[in-house]
Amino acid sequence: MVAHPSEYDKAMPTVAAHLAKVERAVSRTRSSHAGQPYGTVRQALLEALQQEDAQRVVPRVVDEFARRISEEPEQLPV
After folding, report:
1. pLDDT per residue over 39-65, tens digit each?
2. Residue 25 · residue 52 · CB < 8 Å
3. What are the angstrom distances between the C-alpha of 16 and each of 22, 53, 62?
4. Mean pLDDT over the full length of the chain
5. Do the beta carbons of residue 49 and residue 55 sit within 8 Å?
């Protein structure tokens, strides 16, 4: 099912705002927890997402961000 272009245009501000919240949470977690154990990073990221009111993130995405913050923090965009 393809959405009508006007529906896409209506949704974009909401999507952009949500992505900005996720980006802030990831950035904050990276700044404070880079290189720490995965479990610690994942919990901190979940808390940061909740603080940003951005809890609706696919669990595998949260896992990947946490893994990269823990193991490869220099590989994430600033």
Report:
1. 999 999 999 999 999 989 999 999 999
2. yes
3. 10, 14, 18
4. 90
5. yes
Question: Count of alpha carbons within 13 Å of 30, Cβ hemisphere only?
Answer: 20
Using the predicted structure, report yes or no on whether residue 1 has a pLDDT greater than 60: no
Reduce the secondary structure of 29-51 to three states and give it as a string: HHHHHCCCCHHHHHHHHHHHHHH
CB 69, CB 34: distance < 8 Å: yes
Question: What are 9-41's pLDDT values in tens digits?
Answer: 888 999 999 999 999 999 999 999 999 999 999
